[in-house]
């Protein structure tokens, strides 16, 4: 029997013409492990939420979904809760109680199970997931990986037949993510539970799947085994191939006749077979070298900082010290709960260390006023992008960021237009920020931070939810910022991204820095905090840390890194758009000038003809001598036409000279009381009235 059968499913959100899901038809047999992937905004999360009616978003839905042979809408919520488990992206969004054992029992209590049955299932799940050691802990004391594991255990306690997971490892460190996915694979193999998993990090998720579905623009474009799907995307030169596991990408770029590897183990076997017949180039791949000269004073510095959230709680940051320099990308890696995000809060001044000092641009953070610190000096992208959104649309949110800056209206519009193109948001400007996917929200939050053009940029998990294609765009944005001398400090679990683009990597453990070095020094010596490329090739190429390094050693085609000179230039596409917009503006201004001149001439001529006659008519009325008016019926008609021309030309002239700005209304963008002024248009209109 099929767990799910989806027939001609289509869906669009309210007031949106574009279909998010376009005529999707597929079936998922019982016990199958399905990996669903695709670029941000392609409809993955929307499709998953349609599989459980209580989570289905509001909108226009057509088509049918069948669960185990029955129409999904006909199955009551109690049965769906018991039979369909759903693990969300954020661990904190799904936890509802204060204690671990309460959380494990909550679902069973809600379904009405008796106490002996609840105790039995809770004990079984705690043993299966290894929760015994923190069974009585408060949920607030758990790390991100433990919280996500608790979510999974509390759902599995209800013994669902289907387990749906929406990017469950996006906020987990590499080790916790690996353990979590291994547990999901164990559930599928040993319990026969159908698993439907969406992920952007496919290195470990994809080999677990029996079947891979690739979505793009609301459609399923590829369906098959991991190996078949990878080769299909490579043949079609599709952008999703960049997200495939490292062994598959290396295989595709190196001419060979061997079988395509999927896992790191397969990749190691493939590399051994290839090296047996082809000599490997052990020279360093110069195309991937990233160097940075520290010839200036540090722009951000932490000196022996100690911090705890409350007097009676243990220290979170313990004597942490590091420096970041202009034009440098410093990556801070480490497990969940080691103090990375708290350290960023010390750098931004949100929290203050009780011992040690924090410096920005040579000044102590506590001595820098907020209006100076957050107006061009410091930009902060938090872990949760939704905390930055305060308006109803993306466009209004971006304009809101500039409202306190002393910029002209045209400069504000130019900045918003520029950053929206840079972060691929032009088609999302009228969307509510909460209606976008996780990756799209991350891009919108990044755009909002970049609007202030900061000299120091603090990023907390910036690549979370980003697809592989936009990660390359994001890397290009960072290169431009670094070339201009911006300091970037990035907390990240994305090892592959840090290995490819960071200047220096540091490992945070137990509240402090335990080691640091260049990406090659840092990753080539680690066993777990290292890249899939290094694990695949370290026995033959110990210094290889990226897929490009292996491809280069095997004689494959490696694209050169972007030159620094090119980083300061905008894309040709953007330049052409700017030129087109400038041309349109020049043409529009010319039309306005010509219209204003013609209307002014008509206004003057009609006024010259009208006012003497009106004066004569008024004098006649004042003296009571009707003969002075000298108007007959035909003359009256001429003057009526002249009066109409006079009025019409005045209106046209007024509209030509005083154009309404294309920026959002001042009633929508809140303006401080002391800066509220009447516009020229309103002042002139009031005077004329």
Defining traits:
689 residues, alpha/beta, Rossmann fold, six-stranded mixed β-sheet
Can you put this structure into words, describing what you see?
A hairpin with a 2-residue loop joins strand 4 and strand 5. This protein has 4 domains: 243 residues, P-loop containing nucleotide triphosphate hydrolases (Rossmann fold, 3-Layer(aba) Sandwich); 88 residues, no CATH class; 218 residues, P-loop containing nucleotide triphosphate hydrolases (Rossmann fold, 3-Layer(aba) Sandwich); 76 residues. It is of the alpha/beta class. It contains 24 helices and 20 strands. About 5% of the residues have low confidence. It starts with a strand and ends with a helix. A 6-stranded mixed beta sheet has the order 6-7-8-3-9-10, sandwiched between helices. The protein has a 6-stranded mixed beta sheet with strand order 16-17-18-13-19-20, sandwiched between helices. The radius of gyration is 32 Å and the shape is globular.
What's the short version?
The chain is α/β, with parallel strands linked by helices. 43% of the residues lie in helices and 17% in strands. The chain has a 6-stranded mixed sheet with strand order 6-7-8-3-9-10, with helices on both faces.
CATH topology of the largest domain: Rossmann fold
- Percent strand equals 15-25%
CATH architectural name of the largest domain: 3-Layer(aba) Sandwich
Return the CATH class of the largest domain: Alpha Beta
Could you outline the blueprint of secondary structure elements for this entry?
Layout: E1 2-12, E2 21-29, E3 33-37, H1 44-50, E4 60-67, E5 70-71, H2 77-83, E6 84-87, H3 100-110, H4 115-129, H5 144-156, E7 162-166, H6 174-191, E8 194-198, H7 202-208, E9 211-216, E10 219-224, H8 226-235, H9 246-253, H10 264-277, E11 300-307, E12 317-324, E13 329-334, H11 340-348, E14 355-360, E15 363-364, H12 370-377, E16 378-381, H13 394-401, H14 409-422, H15 438-450, E17 456-460, H16 468-483, E18 487-491, H17 495-501, E19 504-509, E20 512-517, H18 519-523, H19 532-537, H20 547-553, H21 564-567, H22 572-623, H23 633-657, H24 680-688
Parallel strand pairs: 3-8, 3-9, 6-7, 7-8, 13-18, 13-19, 16-17, 17-18
Antiparallel strand pairs: 1-2, 1-4, 4-5, 9-10, 11-12, 11-14, 14-15, 19-20
Helix pairs in contact: 3-4, 3-5, 4-5, 9-10, 9-20, 13-15, 22-23
């Amino acid at each position: 029997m099929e767990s799910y059968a989806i027939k001609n499913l289509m869906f669009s959100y309210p007031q949106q013409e574009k279909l998010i899901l376009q005529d999707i038809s597929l079936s998922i047999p019982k016990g199958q492990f399905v990996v669903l992937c695709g670029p941000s905004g392609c409809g993955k999360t929307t499709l998953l939420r349609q599989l459980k009616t209580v989570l289905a978003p509001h909108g226009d839905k057509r088509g049918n979904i069948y669960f185990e042979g029955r129409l999904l809408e006909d199955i009551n919520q109690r049965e769906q809760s018991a039979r369909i488990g759903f693990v969300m992206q954020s661990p904190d969004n799904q936890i509802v109680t204060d204690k671990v054992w309460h959380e494990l029992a909550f679902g069973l209590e809600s379904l009405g199970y008796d106490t002996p049955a609840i105790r039995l299932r809770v004990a079984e799940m705690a043993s299966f997931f290894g929760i015994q050691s923190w069974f009585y802990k408060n949920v607030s004391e758990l790390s991100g990986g433990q919280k996500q594991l608790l979510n999974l255990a509390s759902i599995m306690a209800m013994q669902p037949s289907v387990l749906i997971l929406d990017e469950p490892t996006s906020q987990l460190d590499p080790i916790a993510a690996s353990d979590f996915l291994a547990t999901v694979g164990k559930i599928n193999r040993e319990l026969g539970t159908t698993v439907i998993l969406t992920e952007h990090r496919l290195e470990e998720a994809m080999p677990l799947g029996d079947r891979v579905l690739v979505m793009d623009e609301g459609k399923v474009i590829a369906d098959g085994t991991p190996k078949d799907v990878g080769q299909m995307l490579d043949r079609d030169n599709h952008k999703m191939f960049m997200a495939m596991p490292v062994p598959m990408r290396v295989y595709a770029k190196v001419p060979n006749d061997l079988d395509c590897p999927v896992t790191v183990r397969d990749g190691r076997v493939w590399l051994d077979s290839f090296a047996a017949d082809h000599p490997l180039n052990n020279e360093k791949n110069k195309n991937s070298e990233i160097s940075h000269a520290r010839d200036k004073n540090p722009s951000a510095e932490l000196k022996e900082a100690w911090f705890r959230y409350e007097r009676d709680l243990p220290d979170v940051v313990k004597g942490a010290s590091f420096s970041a320099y202009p034009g440098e990308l410093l990556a801070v890696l480490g497990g969940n709960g080691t103090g990375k995000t708290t350290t960023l809060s010390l750098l931004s001044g949100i929290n203050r260390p009780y011992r040690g000092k924090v410096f920005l641009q040579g000044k102590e953070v506590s001595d820098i006023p907020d209006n100076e610190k957050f107006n061009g000096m410091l930009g902060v992208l938090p872990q949760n992008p939704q905390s930055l959104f305060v308006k109803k649309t993306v466009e209004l949110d971006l304009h809101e960021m500039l409202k306190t800056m002393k910029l002209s209206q045209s400069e504000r519009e130019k900045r918003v237009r520029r950053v929206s193109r840079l972060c691929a948001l032009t088609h999302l400007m009228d969307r509510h920020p909460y209606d976008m996917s996780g990756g799209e929200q991350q891009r919108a939050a990044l755009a909002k931070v970049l609007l202030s053009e900061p000299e120091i940029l603090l990023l907390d998990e910036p690549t979370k939810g980003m697809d592989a294609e936009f990660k390359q765009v994001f890397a290009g944005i960072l290169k431009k910022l670094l070339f201009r001398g911006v300091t970037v400090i990035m907390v990240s679990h994305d090892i592959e991204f840090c290995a490819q683009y960071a200047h220096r990597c540091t490992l945070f453990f137990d509240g402090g820095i335990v080691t640091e070095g260049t990406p090659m020094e840092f990753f080539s010596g680690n066993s777990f905090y290292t890249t899939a490329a290094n694990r695949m090739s370290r026995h033959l190429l110990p210094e290889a840390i990226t897929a490009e390094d292996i491809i280069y050693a095997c004689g494959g085609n490696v694209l050169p890194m972007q030159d620094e000179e090119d980083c300061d230039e905008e894309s040709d596409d953007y330049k052409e758009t700017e030129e087109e917009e400038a041309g349109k503006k020049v043409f529009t201004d010319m039309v306005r000038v010509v219209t204003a001149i013609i209307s002014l001439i008509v206004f003057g001529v009609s006024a010259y003809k009208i006012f003497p006659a009106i004066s004569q008519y008024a004098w006649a009325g004042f003296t009571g001598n009707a003969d002075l008016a000298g108007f007959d019926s035909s003359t009256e008609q001429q003057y009526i036409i002249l009066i109409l021309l006079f009025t019409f030309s005045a209106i046209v002239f007024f509209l030509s000279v005083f154009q309404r700005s294309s920026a959002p209304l001042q009633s929508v963008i809140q303006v401080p009381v002391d800066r509220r002024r009447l516009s020229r248009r309103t002042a002139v209109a009031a005077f004329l009235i």
